Amino acid sequence: MEEEEQKRLAEAKRKAAAERKRQEELAALRQKQESAGVWTESHTGMKSRGIPGGSFRMGNPSWEADRRENETQHTVSVGEFWLGEKEVTLGQFRQFVQDSGHRPQSESKGCWWYTGSKFEEDKNKNWHSPGFSQGDNHPVACVSWNDAVAYAQWLSRKTGKRFRLPTESELRLATPVSLAFSPSARQSPT
């Protein structure tokens, strides 16, 4: 019985040490990020922040409940990159649609939205009529991954600079600790 208790205590100490190390790594990364520069793109006014590269542990510890097989912890290294400070706004997306002639997928397929109890697809909702009021400075809603890629390609052509969607690792590096390791932040809406 005493041996079992010692094993349990040793495991609890190991878990606490692993979590402490993860928090220290994230605090160091956050400190590096706060000293990075800001750049404003002149065509849309979109602000981007330089994110210094770094290494961090990604995935879930083996002892975490509900961990999937493909979520094992591993070290990820990311080089320096730029990331938009905020989401693309309705006004910026409208400028893209008008300038490029792109037809967002939600205009023909509708979009998914939360009813209060579940997510449903609604063919009557789209990026310029998502089912709630929006101003030009609000984040655009009801856009697909393909629409986001098309926006980045348009902005690249417009500016002569390379724009793209961030990778999962880049988002994890740039995301505050409270979101990056919150189990609810990782859950899929469906």
Notable characteristics:
41% helix; paralog of FGE (formylglycine-generating enzyme); 16% strand; disordered C terminus; alpha+beta; 190 residues; 3-stranded antiparallel sheet
Question: Secondary-structure map with pairings?
Answer:
Elements: H1 2-34, E1 38-40, E2 47-51, E3 54-58, E4 74-78, E5 81-84, H2 90-100, H3 106-109, E6 111-114, E7 119-122, H4 145-159, H5 168-174, H6 177-180, H7 183-186
Antiparallel strand pairs: 1-2, 2-5, 3-4, 6-7
In words, what does this structure look like?
It is extended, with a radius of gyration of 21 Å. The protein has a single domain, classed as paralog of FGE (formylglycine-generating enzyme) (Alpha-Beta Complex). It has seven helices and seven strands. The protein has 190 residues and is an alpha+beta fold. The model is unreliable at 178-190 (pLDDT under 50). The protein has helices spanning 2-34, 90-100, 106-109, 145-159, 168-174, 177-180, 183-186, and strands at residues 38-40, 47-51, 54-58, 74-78, 81-84, 111-114, 119-122. Helix content is 41%, strand content 16%.
